[in-house]
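thought: fold this chain, then report.
action: predict
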Amino acid sequence: MSVAREAAGAGAPPSPTSRAPRRVLVLGGTSEIAGAIVRELATREGGCEVVLAGRDPQALDRVAGQLRGAGAANVHTLPLDALERDAHAAALERAWAQLGGAVDVVIVAVGLLGERGGLPQDIPVALEVLDVNLLGAASLLLHSARLLREQPGGGGTLVVLSSVAALRARASNVVYSASKAGLDALAQGLADALHGSGVRVMVVRPGFVHTRMTRGLRVPPLATTPEQVARATVAGLEHGRQTVWAPGAMRWVMLGLRALPHRVFRRLAL
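observation:
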């Protein structure tokens, strides 16, 4: 049974021991947050079958070994580069084939942090961040949505890893914030466009997460871990939510920050 149909409450939910392993596709297969989500799914569901798609084969193999050790039934890897958009459709069709022709959960986790500070010093690198985080992720999101809608039986959930930075661009990381804002808006609109189709889109908005990508950065209040984000994400899947905040208090923090006048917001060290 797909995540979307479980969340909709179609009939009595089966016990965890009777459920077939969920079929999960991770786009950005070395993401620490996405890996934690898969481990949480494997633990709660008694295993799952996974395809990890990414551009570093050795790193994908390491993550695959970790997931097998955490209880994932079968873990496959697939070469995928977010920048090679012309190859996305064929790569995703291969991923679907590896999972038997149907997918329950697609996690869109491709992303780069990029240069910190205001105006980027290295503009080509800044443009690459936009290309990966927005155009690359958008391409993968749209192709995945089409395949979910067309797969036998329909249904499934797209989990889009966004950020609280999407809600108001920050002077400390202008390009990253802008890239996440674009992806977040696309995901929200796509959720409405797919309403009633059996395909759900769930946007996950973490605050600061302790990962390799954020190592060495100043740690703000309400910092969280990949495992905490994973638990919130899986709870969101189970309850049919469209948006997940991690931690939950970030929802109210961002509500306040978005209401601040520009002259006040600009002075904050965000």
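thought: worth noting. Residues 123-150 form the longest helix (28 residues).
final: tokens above.
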